[in-house]
Design a protein that fits this description.
Length: 348
């Protein structure tokens, strides 16, 4: 709910539209379920990764918010960054939702969303933290590159990943780690971050390309999970100026790990950059994009609005002399019909 309301608000949506968004999205919300017991400062890490404690974690963090004089940034500092294995190093579980939620907390300056993001990070905590917490997983690459897009194109052609899955879907992500960890980490370690600003810019271009330049022009659905690569990149963009510097590159590398696993799980579709660079805008501009986001046929679709918002912020951050961000946004905004890339249950 905060994602779509926040994005529509940042697109300068009228109050009536925000009410429409709320009424539409609230139909999908599930009622709270009581947790088995409460969570305290003494045992809060004991229940990490257990979704049954969602309510208990939110109650706990909201109590901590009161005890800290409603200073939500102080609560985040205490529970995100401290400890041997801090929560900040495990924000990409759940297809990046804890990371995305945290980004909106800072972007909207919302203490409520901030406490929700801590709760989400707590119940989503899993094995992914080890790749950041344990330095042995980070190794020099035999074939490094400064370009994440180049590495993704290399991955797309890598026959070692052929025939891993018969169909796409998020259930494949864990299988990628279980059965192909070595190959995955080969690509994870291959991205060399030597100029953080320029390299992060390149990663945001790659994130946009994964959603927009993999889409076929025959009316096929856009990939729902590649959308999360883009919206999680937007979250990283929001967070980097606000987090302690020691977490900047690890956070970007978290995003890169998520990107690789999602791309593999979604069967590594070909990235055709010409589909963006050669796209005919036909006179459409950012005003058209803004209007499409809040008045178009899909103005109530949260991931549609978030994707357009991420591309617009990309333009605001990096400039758009070559028109990449505008062409990508218009292509997506005009061509979107529905989301795809799902599978109801894992094979076998």
């Amino acid at each position: 709910m905060p994602h779509v309301l926040g994005s529509a608000y940042l697109f300068n949506a009228e109050a009536d539209h925000l009410n429409d968004v709320y009424n539409y999205e609230s139909k999908e919300l599930e009622p709270w379920q009581d947790s088995p017991n409460e969570v305290s400062t003494y045992d809060w890490r004991d229940y990490l990764g257990n979704p049954k404690y969602q309510r208990a974690y939110l109650d706990f963090f909201e109590d901590e918010l009161v005890l800290n004089g409603y200073n939500w940034r102080k609560v985040l500092e205490e529970y995100l960054f401290k400890g041997k294995e801090p929560l900040i190093n495990n924000l990409i579980s759940g297809v990046g939702h804890p990371l995305i939620h945290l980004g909106y907390a800072y972007e909207l300056s919302s203490r409520e969303v901030a406490m929700e993001s801590l709760s989400m990070a707590s119940i989503s905590y899993n094995y992914l933290h080890k790749y950041l917490d344990d330095p042995s997983y980070t190794k020099p690459s035999a074939n490094p590159s400064k370009s994440p897009l180049e590495l993704l194109c290399r991955l797309q052609k890598d026959s070692r990943f052929n025939n891993l899955f018969a169909s796409p879907g998020p259930f494949k992500i864990e299988t990628v780690f279980q059965e192909n960890e070595g190959l995955l980490l080969e690509y994870w370690n291959a991205w060399t971050i030597s100029n953080p600003t320029e390299d992060f810019r390149a990663s945001q271009i790659a994130a946009t390309a994964l959603l927009v330049a993999t889409h076929k022009s025959n009316g096929a659905a856009y990939d729902f999970f590649l959308c999360h690569v883009l919206t999680s990149s937007h979250a990283v963009r929001i967070l980097l100026p606000l987090l302690p510097p020691k977490y900047h590159i690890p956070l970007v590398r978290q995003w890169w790990l998520l990107t690789l696993t999602v791309y593999i799980a979604q069967l590594r579709p070909e990235i055709l950059m010409s589909s963006i660079s050669d796209y005919d805008l036909e006179g459409r501009d950012w005003e058209w994009v803004d209007k499409k986001a809040v008045e178009g046929d899909h103005a109530l679709d949260p991931h549609y609005i978030k994707s357009l918002r991420a591309m617009k912020v990309g333009k605001d951050t990096w400039g758009d002399e070559e028109g990449f961000w505008l062409k990508a946004a218009v292509k997506f905004g005009e061509g979107f019909e529905e989301w795809g890339g799902f599978r109801v249950r894992p094979e076998g």
